[in-house]
Specification:
alpha/beta; two-stranded antiparallel ribbon; 12 helices; single chain; Chemotaxis Receptor Methyltransferase Cher, domain 1; binds S-adenosylmethionine
């Protein structure tokens, strides 16, 4: 096993051996599917050394022992938080929201008004901008959407970011990408110059903790799944399994949206047809679903 190059340590910071890195990498892969290459060792060091300080641990060896032991459960969340980024924006990759409205909502207006169900999953939703953008898109196309059989499930593995998503207090800068025509009914003042989400879009979104590497206590089928800028952390076999599991949960004709730098791969590729940039439709007919213009 090659020794890692010396980390960019401050005087007094604990050393980070190859064995420490291997243990952290194995843990992150096993628990969260995160694929940490050795090139990320400095990043891993700088993110986790803060945890050592916070926990007043003397080195990475006791830290790894903690993670792997029965007392370490609470620290698992801190690791996934430290090793992934929560970067997100309202209406990120806006073409996905245009496609959602054009393919999943507008052709079904009459059926949805008559009570047909529409289910959307934002998997890896971070601070909530993605699922709230979905809710705004649905309300823009169908103003009574909040009273209909329409739900958005928003999940993330990181409890801290889910707490922020539920709190829903956004800065001027953060709400800037929301289309101007939506802002009057989508946002409410939330004090101290912040913006909250208005009751209608807020009511359509349900947040829950979910680790994509574990069982999914979710009920499909979904009409659309957004899993964007999450699979970048996973290796190809893990990604392939993820796409396959999404394919199994999507209704025929259901949509899958992935991140701009992600690619569908593995056996699931055959189950999808491209409908736009990093946007896919599950092939097969939407059996029993009456589509009306
Ligand atoms: C960069 S954010 C993407 C947010 C949003 N989907 C977007 O594209 O704007 C990645 C999110 O994936 C979550 N994540 C990472 N690994 C995960 C896992 N194993 N299960 C569920 N969520 C995970 C992180 O907590 C983070 O909030």
């Amino acid at each position: 096993m090659a020794l890692l190059a010396p980390p960019p340590a401050a005087p007094g910071d604990p050393p980070f051996t190859a064995r420490d890195f291997d243990r952290i990498a194995a843990f992150a892969y096993r628990e969260f599917g995160l694929s940490l290459q050795e090139s990320k060792k400095d990043l891993v060091y700088s993110r986790l050394v803060r945890r050592l300080r916070a926990l007043r641990l003397s080195g990475f060896q006791p830290y790894c022992d903690l993670l792997e032991g029965p007392e370490g459960r609470a620290e698992h969340d801190a690791v996934v938080s430290a090793l992934t980024t929560n970067v997100t924006h309202f209406f990120r990759e806006p073409h996905h929201f245009d496609l959602l409205a054009a393919l999943a909502v507008k052709p079904r207006l009459q059926a949805l008004r008559a009570g047909e169900r529409l289910r959307i999953w934002s998997a890896g939703c971070s601070a909530g901008m993605e699922p709230y953008s979905i809710a705004m898109t649905l309300l823009d196309a169908l103003p009574e959407a909040a009273q209909l059989n329409i739900r958005i499930l928003a999940t993330d593995v990181d409890p801290a970011i889910l707490a922020r998503a539920r709190e829903a207090r956004f800065t001027d800068e953060e709400v800037r990408p929301i289309p101007a025509r939506m802002k009057p009914w989508a946002l409410v003042p939330a004090g101290e110059g912040r913006h909250g989400i208005a009751p209608k879009p807020a009511r359509m979104v349900r947040f829950a903790g979910l680790n994509l590497m574990q069982d999914w206590p979710v009920r499909g089928p979904f009409d659309a799944i957004f899993c964007r800028n999450v699979a970048i952390y996973f290796d190809k076999p893990t990604q392939a399994r993820l796409w396959q599991r999404f394919a199994g949960l999507l209704a025929p004709g259901g949509l899958l949206f992935i991140g701009h730098s992600e690619r569908l791969g593995g056996p699931a590729e055959a189950a999808f047809a491209s409908v736009g940039i990093t946007a896919y439709r599950k092939t097969g007919t939407s059996a029993g679903r009456k589509e009306t213009a």
